[in-house]
Amino acid sequence: MQIIKNELLNEYVYHEKLHNNMDVFFMPKRGFTKKYAVLATNYGSNDLEFISPHTNEKIKVNEGIAHFLEHKMFEQPDGSNAFDDFAKIGANANAFTNFNMTAYLFSSTENFEEGLRHLISYVQEPYFTEENVEKEKGIIAQEIKMYDDNPDWKLFFNTLKAMYKVHANSIDIAGTVESIYKITPDELYSCYKTFYSPSNMALFVIGELDKDEVMNIVKSTVKDEFMFDGEIKRIEPLETDEIRQKEIIEQLDVSVPMFSIGYKDRAAVLGSKELMKKSIVTELILDILFKKGSQLYDKLYREGLVFGGISCDYTEHIDYGYTIISGETRDIEAVKHEIFSAIESAKIAGIDEADFERAKKKKIGSFIKSFDSIEFIANNYLSYYFKGMDILEYYEVLKSIEIEALNERLKEHFDNDMSVISIIMPKEDK
Predict the structure, then answer these.
(1) What percent of the chain has pLDDT over 90?
(2) Residue 268 predicted with pLDDT over 80
(3) What are phi and psi of 200, to 5 degrees?
(4) Residues in Cβ contact with 154 at an 8 Å cutoff, skipping those fewer than 6 apart
(5) Which CATH architecture has domain 247-426?
(6) Residue 46: Cβ-neighbour burial (10 angstroms; 0-12, 13-18, 19+)
(7) What residues are labeled active site?
(8) For the Peptidase M16 C-terminal domain, which residue ranges apply (predicted)?
(9) Which residue has the higher pLDDT, 7 or 210?
(10) Residue 223 has pLDDT above 60, yes or no
(11) What spatial distance separates the first Cα and last Cα of the chain, rounded to whole Å?
(12) Where are the domains of the chain?
């Protein structure tokens, strides 16, 4: 068993690869009454084409199948629901699917050991029939239609659609009504047997627990049924270093226009620490230029150009990355001009040294404080792990960053040729 330590945080993680190649991580957290576990697979909505490890055939699946599969995993062969079994022992359970990961999780203050056995057991027991798959299609179709009317959701995905020509992250995680009605039990089993192999999964357990007891429960509960040798061969379309279109405008039921400016990363193959550094550097730039306390934020707020401030985030992955800057305004052109001007001015003048030091110290403080949340630790640890990174190295990478890296990234990433805008306008009165 490996021990991964971070001296600054005074935190350590036990890591063991089981006989079936599943990775198990355990972080002891003294003084916490709540315990938490998340079992995740390195599989999300982007994984639409792959080579079957069982037949060696190329398979292309329907959009939204990873999310559909997550929904179906709660239905048990005896007719019960996995959520109900958690509720009986006083545990809170949930699950989520994003572009690159599917996760099943629960927390409890009591009966944690029983909950952990249940978590591992039900995720290893898929049960798909023609009847229960057909039933689920109507439920998910309603969910898709609900999100189609959600302005924030549409604003976000229209930004991705404008940026990406072929990459699957421009496709709604839940798919479309048309695509999910094509899903079959055989297709679900094919995805499950490929991506839910123990070698593609990881479990993170955290809380005031005994390490040996946790590992005994895990080892006595995991199965080898869908274990196979070799790597999963994903087939990913080659995205170009160009955007699809400059602007997407849609009308929905909103009272104030909404905007989302996106900057698409050019393709680059990076190692894990380089990927982490790129992410942190971009986040620091966003903190300095756009977040509360910045010159731009104060100006937009003072002149009444934005409502509720500006939101800005950078998303990184092994094969894509993008920045999104969004908000609400009655004068989109004026706000767009101010944002672009702030970026161009920063490129010319460079990042202010005092702003850099302040943003860096603030990020260090936020990172340390985030370790008070066991949910944050567990979910982010696995998310980073699947991208080849270790979140416990975050502080060392952050500490090593110099201001020159921000100025280089400003010029490289915030390129007008790689920018798009998504706009949601109020519906016009008929």
Answers:
(1) 80
(2) no
(3) -105, 10
(4) 147, 148, 250, 252, 424
(5) 2-Layer Sandwich (3.30)
(6) buried
(7) 70
(8) 182-362
(9) 210
(10) yes
(11) 68
(12) 2-234, 247-426
Taking all residues of the chain, what is their mean pLDDT, rounded to a whole number?
A: 92
Q: In what order do the strands lie in the sheet with 247-252?
A: 247-252, 419-426, 258-264, 321-328, 307-316
Mean pLDDT of 158-165: 97
- Is residue 19's pLDDT more than 60? yes
Mean pLDDT of 121-150: 92
Round the CA-based radius of gyration of the chain to a whole number and report it.
Answer: 23
Q: CA quadruple 221, 92, 99, 187: dihedral positive or negative? A: positive
Fold: same for 2-234 and 247-426: yes
Of 152, 182, 334, 168, nearest to 258 by C-alpha is 152
What dotted CATH number matches 2-234?
3.30.830.10
